[in-house]
Amino acid sequence: MFSNSQLRGTGVALITPFKQDKSIDFDAMKRVIDFNIENGVNYFIILGTTGESPVLTKEEKHEVFGKAAAFVNGRIPLVAGVGGNSTAQVIEDMRAFAFREQYCAFLSVTPYYNKPSQQGMIEHYGAIAAMSPLPIILYNVPGRTGVTLQPATVIHLANTHKNIIGVKEAAGSMSATFELLRDRPEGFLLLSGDDDLTFPQIACGFDGVISVAAQAFPKPFCKMVQDALAGNTQQAAPIQLRLIKGINLLFKEGNPVGVKLALAQMGLCENVLRLPLISASPTLSTEMQEFIHASKDLL
């Protein structure tokens, strides 16, 4: 039986690897999944932003959800990225989701481009919560969506809908962090969506992270998270300090540009994205290679 506690710790937003011809590379997907599980990742998000979901067809998304479940084979929990800026379409996608037995929750991003009001987002999430076959994790990432899910709105949704079980908070705001910690109902998951703030947010009381950096650097990142959750801040802080250069490089030219570059340099996948995203610049490639080489003892 699913418990919110299964989503504490380090979640990884999985990439969708592509071959040189831009088709999905499922062999590489399995390698990345195994690499992450073997190095301590607690759960995966499939087809979030990092998975380049906007450039996959409906049929490809179905195949990715299924293949990921088969590759993981019950070793750790799975969360499905299902969101959008049409409430009716999100409801349709959730109701049609074919892998309810293999996935424990949906991660659903705030409606982008439309720029709804706070009341509009309350009604959007209320509508999908009423119809969703799985629990829902809110996803607040204003840098991508153009709209901010305010802490008071998150708390209202948490108190109103029992199947809204947490939030991935990626607004980059420690003020919002404190408001969420102060007001959240018992058991409501607070998950960092900012790799550079993961340690301080967990040290203040967050339950974990849904991470990009942990996919490329799982061993040290997962240790940092576990140390922080255990209150061992003296062990966790130096890891965050050593990782911060790599984290900044991962996002220097956008996500998942940096993480695909790093994973390719580790021999886990091809460094291929679908337009409108393009592969990393030669400068970033050199910088990433230098960081990985200089951090071999850590990684």
Description of the molecule:
This protein is an alpha/beta fold and 299 residues long. It has a single domain (4-232), classed as Aldolase class I (TIM Barrel, Alpha-Beta Barrel), CATH 3.20.20.70. The protein is built from 13 helices and 8 strands. The chain has helices at 26-38, 58-72, 87-95, 118-131, 142-145, 151-160, 174-183, 198-204, 213-216, 218-229, 233-251, 257-265, 282-294; strands at 9-13, 43-46, 78-81, 105-109, 136-140, 164-169, 189-192, 208-211. The chain has an 8-stranded parallel β-barrel with strand order 1-2-3-4-5-6-7-8, surrounded by 5 helices. Helix 3 links the parallel strand 3 and strand 4 (105-109). Helix 11 packs antiparallel against helix 13. The longest helix has 19 residues, at 233-251. It is globular and about 50 Å long. The relative contact order is 0.14. The mean pLDDT is 97.
